[in-house]
Specification:
By secondary structure, the protein is of the alpha+beta class. It is built from 13 helices and 23 strands. Helices cover about 30% and strands about 25% of the residues. Helix 1 crosses helix 2.
Amino acid sequence: MRRIAFTIFLSLIFLAAGSETSIAQQIYASAQKDVSRLTSNKTISQAAVSICAMRGNGDKIVDINAETMLVPASNMKLITTGAAMHKFGPDYRYETSISHDGEIVDGVLKGNVYIIGGADPTLGSIDSIATPVEQTFAQWTAILKKAGISHIEGRIIGDGRYFDPMIEEPTWLVEDVGTYYGAGTTGLMFYENMQSFRVSAGQAVGDSVNICPSYPDTPWMTFRYSCTTGKESTGDQLFMFTSELAPIAEIRGTFGVDRKAKRLDCSNKFPEYTCAYHFHEYLNGQGITCSGGVGDFRLDPEWQTYGEIKNLGKTLSPQMKRIIFETNYISNNVYAETLLRTLGRETTGSACYDSSYVAIGKVLSELNVDTSRGCRIKDGSGLSRQNYISSDFLCRFLRGMMDSPHFEAFVETLPSPGSKGTLAYNMKKYPEDLRMRIKVKSGSMNGVRCYSGYIIPTDGCREDVIIFSLMVNNCTSPSWEIRNLLDSIMGTLAELN
């Protein structure tokens, strides 16, 4: 506040002397100087830096290589979640339908039951916002019982063709694709398309790693393990290699001899079949037998089409605002990719990535955000290192979101420094009232650290909102040093209002 008072004092002197320099220009000069001093720190002095800050009215406050395009990491999620909030609104829910073909005769369904996914990313998830899977299965069972079904002669079919086919963005690294955070998205999700394993080191370096599947149960899968116990301090270097073409997966790599046993989460390429299988097992426990087993439309080519079906009922996901909140707070990649592909499906009729990029471009156009400079989008989560965004573009996008009818709902999905999730360790030394006025999304991967968001003024005036984007690439300094430095920049900007 002293800085602001001093700046205003200087401005009054200039005005009294007849200078045309405005208060806004003085604030710009002061902030630019302070941020430039921080970026000259050895921590990032040799890194690629792009920093932009502006007022809600468009007045620039800081511009340091603001037009330079860098890898945004999970700052990409700001664009994805903002576009989804603008397009669908905070109350939108994904639907999962329970349907059947054939006829019901004396309690016997002479046909199949279909779980028709609508891309609910929370289905079967252990995320705190998700409906527990047992509760979801109980709802589906109640739907079947209400229709008078006590026995199914056909199969339980998982239908994920709302997003057909299952794909990952081709620019993702191969070592990411087999992980839980690199799982592909499907029209029928289950357990965030993950497969969990129990892992523990062998007794000595070179021994086999103790590993076995835990959840979900996938007896049709063949798992191969080429894992050895590594030396001390080598950490977890296990990676899964798999394909949607066959139910076979292999885990390779090393697991340090000094590592504690853990849960290893990898990707599951067959969530539709997994969902159908687990619902089939649940039905058996509830007295509804199924003699035909399970299937899906990718593992069973003969099920590419079905005849006339009857929709019996549906279940709903949490509201869009809750899904976006979780996406931004814990930086959930699967949720973000689902949002992107949903934009494609609902806007263009196709959920492929190219169509999804067209869809997000249409939303940006609605928000009057110029996409001709400062952005190249290659996914929804920021996992791709071929995303290139400038800090200027991120600020222009965030300013555009201020004109969305769902702006307030969007801001509420952004965490503050020191809160749970990815920002738990940020700005701990700053007063809570200052931290709570900062609403920001982090983004990080090796050599990348970014923070972009809003600083809400104490008076709540929209024109005085500060929009900022801090991007650092190609930095070899420890992540905590970069974090502390960027915290200082956020603190400097917050002191302006």
